[in-house]
C-alpha cells in the first residue's frame, strides 16, 4: 500500500473520530439545555408541571391528581369535614386574611383548608379557577374549593415547615433551625421569584398582603409565597373589600394608603420590609411605623448600624462584608420614596441572584466569612 493511501486512510479515520466526538458533545449539551429548561422556576406551563409531578409528586394516583394542572377541583363539605375531624380545634393551625386555617388529610396528602363565611357566589368560583391555574415552585399551590353551608373554603397544599417567622424571629428561645446568611439569601430569592411571577402575569397580579408570615418553607427550606390572589378574591366577594389589621400595616406601602392606589411597587415595598426582617431577625413592626420618606428610612438604618443593632447577632460569622452590605442596599432600594424609584421584582431577582452567587463563591473558596463590624 502506498504512503498516500495510508495517509488518506488515517486522515479519514481521524475525521470520523472527530465527528463522533462532536456528536457526543452536541448530544450532551442538548440534554443539559433540556434539563435546564424543564427546571425553570418561572414556568406555569402545565406540561412542565406534569413532568415535575411524575418525578416528585405523591406516590398514589389519587393524591397525584390533586397537583395536576386541571383547574380548581370542587370538594364536598362532607369530605373536608372528615379531613379536619369536623374542623376541630386540634386541627386549627392558624388564622389568615381569609379566615381560620385547618390542617386536614385529603386523598392521601396533608392539605391546608382556609374557611371564610359567605354565601355561594359565582365571583368566588371564577376567582378560584383563575388562581388555581397559576403554578410556580415558589407559590403555594391552590388545589380546590368548596361552597356549602354558609362557608367558602380554599384547599391548599400544606407546607411542612410553616412560616419562616417560626425559624427567623428572635424570641429569646432557641429556634428549631439556625438560619445562616446563605439560607436567608436563598429564601429571599425564592420568595422574590414567586412574587415576580405574579407580576409577570397579564394583567399583573399584585399580592397586596405580602409579609414574612406569608413566606412558607418546605422540608428543603424552599420558599413558597402564600395567599397569592387572596386580596383580589376578597375584593370580589366582599363589598367592603379585605380589611388589614394593624399587625400587618408595617408591610403596607405608605404611598398606597396616601394615594389610594396599589401597584407592583407597593408589593416591592413589602418585600423590602421582609428583607429587613431577614437581616435583623426581628419583627419590624416596632421599628418602622413612622417611615414616610427616604430620610427617615436611611436614618433608621444608619442609627441601627452605628449601634450594631441592625444585623442579627445569631448570624455570627456566616456572612461576608460585601454580602450583607449589598443586601442592605437592596433593601433600601425596595423601600425608597417615591415608589417609582424602586426596583421592579424582576430586577430584585437579578440582584439577589448576584448577591447569592457571590456569597456562595466567597464563603466556599475562602472557607470562612467576615464580620461586618
TrEMBL record:
It is found in: Cell membrane. It comes from Gossypium tomentosum. The chain crosses the membrane at residues 6-28. One of its GO terms (cellular component) is plasma membrane. One of its GO terms (molecular function) is ATP binding. Keywords: ATP-binding, Cell membrane, Kinase, Membrane, Nucleotide-binding, Serine/threonine-protein kinase, Transferase, Transmembrane, Transmembrane helix. The keyword Transferase applies. Residues 87-359 form the Protein kinase domain. This is non-specific serine/threonine protein kinase. It catalyses: L-threonyl-[protein] + ATP = O-phospho-L-threonyl-[protein] + ADP + H(+); L-seryl-[protein] + ATP = O-phospho-L-seryl-[protein] + ADP + H(+). The lineage of its organism: Eukaryota, Viridiplantae, Streptophyta, Embryophyta, Tracheophyta. Pfam families: PK_Tyr_Ser-Thr. Coiled coil: none annotated. InterPro entries: Kinase-like_dom_sf, PERK1-13-like, Prot_kinase_dom, Ser-Thr/Tyr_kinase_cat_dom. Its EC number is 2.7.11.1. It comes from the Eukaryota. It is a single-pass membrane protein.
Amino acid at each position: 500500500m502506498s504512503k498516500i493511501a495510508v495517509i488518506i486512510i488515517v486522515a479519514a479515520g481521524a475525521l470520523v473520530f472527530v465527528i463522533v466526538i462532536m456528536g457526543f458533545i452536541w448530544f450532551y449539551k442538548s440534554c443539559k439545555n433540556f434539563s435546564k429548561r424543564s427546571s425553570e422556576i418561572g414556568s406555569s406551563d402545565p406540561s412542565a408541571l406534569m413532568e415535575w409531578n411524575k418525578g416528585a409528586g405523591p406516590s398514589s394516583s389519587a393524591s397525584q391528581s390533586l397537583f395536576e394542572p386541571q383547574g380548581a377541583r370542587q370538594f364536598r363539605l362532607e369530605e373536608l369535614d372528615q379531613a379536619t375531624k369536623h374542623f376541630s380545634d386540634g386541627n386549627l393551625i392558624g388564622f389568615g386574611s381569609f379566615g381560620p386555617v385547618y390542617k386536614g388529610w385529603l386523598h392521601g396528602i396533608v392539605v391546608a383548608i382556609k374557611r371564610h363565611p359567605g354565601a355561594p357566589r359565582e365571583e368566588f368560583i371564577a376567582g378560584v379557577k383563575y388562581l388555581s391555574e397559576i403554578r410556580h415552585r415558589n407559590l403555594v399551590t391552590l388545589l380546590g374549593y368548596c361552597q356549602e353551608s354558609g362557608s367558602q373554603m380554599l384547599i391548599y397544599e400544606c407546607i411542612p415547615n410553616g412560616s419562616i417567622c417560626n425559624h427567623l424571629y428572635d424570641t429569646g428561645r432557641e429556634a428549631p433551625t439556625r438560619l445562616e446568611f446563605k439560607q436567608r439569601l436563598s429564601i429571599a430569592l425564592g420568595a422574590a421569584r414567586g412574587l415576580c411571577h405574579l407580576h409577570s402575569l397579564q394583567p399583573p397580579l399584585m399580592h397586596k398582603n405580602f409579609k414574612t408570615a406569608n413566606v412558607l418553607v418546605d422540608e428543603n427550606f424552599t420558599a413558597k409565597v402564600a395567599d397569592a390572589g387572596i386580596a383580589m378574591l376578597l375584593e370580589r366577594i366582599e363589598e367592603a373589600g379585605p380589611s388589614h389589621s394593624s399587625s400587618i400595616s408595617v408591610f403596607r406601602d405608605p404611598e398606597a394608603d396616601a394615594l389610594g392606589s396599589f401597584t407592583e411597587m407597593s408589593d416591592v415595598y413589602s418585600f423590602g420590609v421582609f428583607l429587613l426582617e431577614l437581616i435583623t431577625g426581628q419583627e419590624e413592626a416596632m421599628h418602622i411605623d413612622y417611615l414616610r420618606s427616604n430620610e427617615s428610612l436611611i436614618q433608621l438604618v444608619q442609627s441601627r448600624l452605628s449601634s450594631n443593632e441592625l444585623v442579627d447577632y445569631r448570624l455570627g460569622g456566616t456572612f461576608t462584608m460585601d454580602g450583607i452590605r449589598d443586601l442592605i442596599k437592596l433593601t433600601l432600594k425596595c423601600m425608597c420614596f417615591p415608589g417609582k424609584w424602586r426596583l421592579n421584582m424582576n430586577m430584585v431577582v437579578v440582584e439577589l441572584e448576584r448577591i447569592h452567587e457571590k456569597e456562595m463563591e466567597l464563603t466556599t473558596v475562602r472557607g470562612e466569612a467576615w464580620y461586618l463590624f
